[in-house]
Design goal:
By secondary structure, the protein is an alpha/beta fold. It contains five helices and 17 strands. Strand 4 and strand 5 form a beta hairpin. The chain binds flavin-adenine dinucleotide and FE2/S2 (inorganic) cluster.
């Protein structure tokens, strides 16, 4: 593990959708699916991103354009330098589950992409608001898609589609990442069906390695104790599905953030 950023050159950029680009760079990282790296743009900031591609010595991060940092990343070109440190955190556990289902919402699918690489026979659900937000369609053509507006795939949410599938199929493990409200409902549904679930949580991160306390979720530091948590762990974490901590330290209700 490295704690000083290493400057790496962007060697390729792939447009996954109008709002998401994948940036590839060379790196020899010991990585477990679900772990993340801290990406540094000198003089601007440092933010967490999951590794969404890893093949031999080529690593990729898929970035949804949102605020100042991700807009600056989206302006980067092949040959530009970014700083990387990590990987950090506890990733997904592949010990159990012979019939898994992977449920990704929005950019949460980036955290699950290397899980799909590992579990090629899994059922994969990707949900988005509309067709143009779907990512990795060529990479994983077997995905079952759903959109809120019905512009591609099943019309409805990932929860609606998972419920539909559960009428005729059984799963013994669900891996999920996406908006926390979605993940909370996935966990509830899995509990009702007696299915083990692993969830990749998103909390505001500063250090990324357990020192600053910024990413607290009910006493768990999401950057080192997670970001992946099991259903059993989540059942003791009252803030899951309810409270986020802003950069300022203020605790806010997830429904109002
Ligand atoms: C473990 C983890 C893995 C992530 N992986 C990805 C990924 O693969 N692809 C991707 O597009 N995004 C990922 N994110 C989210 C990404 O870090 C934020 O979208 C990004 O930092 C936004 O920065 P911004 O300045 O563009 O937007 P802002 O306008 O600053 O923020 C937009 C949103 O991103 C959140 N955010 C901002 N800064 C941070 C931070 N330091 N830590 C956590 N969340 C933050 C804000 O709370 C807000 O909800 C991940 C977050 C975590 C915690
Ligand atoms: S980000 Fe600093 S403790 Fe997790």
């Amino acid at each position: 593990m490295i704690e000083q950023p290493t400057m790496v050159k962007i060697c390729d950029i792939l447009e996954e959708s109008p709002g998401v680009k994948t940036f590839f760079f060379k790196g020899n990282l010991q990585f477990v699916p679900g772990q993340f790296v801290m990406v540094w743009i000198p003089t601007l900031d440092e933010k967490p991103f999951t590794i969404s591609y890893i093949q031999k010595d080529i690593v990729g991060i898929s970035v949804l354009k949102r605020g100042e940092f991700t807009q600056a990343l989206h302006k980067k070109r092949v040959g530009d330098l970014i700083g990387i440190r990590g990987p950090y955190g506890r990733g997904f556990d592949f010990q159990s589950g012979s019939n898994p289902c992977i449920v990704g919402g929005g950019i949460g699918m980036a955290s699950l992409a290397t899980v799909v690489d590992r579990l090629r026979d899994a059922t994969i659900i990707q949900g988005a608001r509309t067709a143009s937000e779907i990512i990795y369609q060529k990479r994983f053509p077997e995905m079952k898609l759903c959109t809120d507006d019905g512009s591609i795939g099943f019309k409805g949410t990932t929860i609606d589609l998972l419920k539909e599938l559960l009428k005729t199929q059984t799963f013994d493990k669900v891996y999920t990442c996406g908006p926390e409200r979605m993940m909370y409902k996935v966990v509830e549904l899995c509990k009702n069906h007696g299915i083990d679930c692993e969830v990749s949580l998103d909390r505001y991160m500063k250090c990324g390695f357990g020192v600053c306390g910024q990413c607290d979720c009910s006493g768990q530091r999401v950057c080192i104790d997670g970001p992946v948590f099991t259903t059993a762990e989540l059942s003791t974490m009252e803030d899951f599905g309810r409270i986020h901590i802003l950069k300022t330290g203020e605790r806010v209700n997830i429904h109002s953030s």
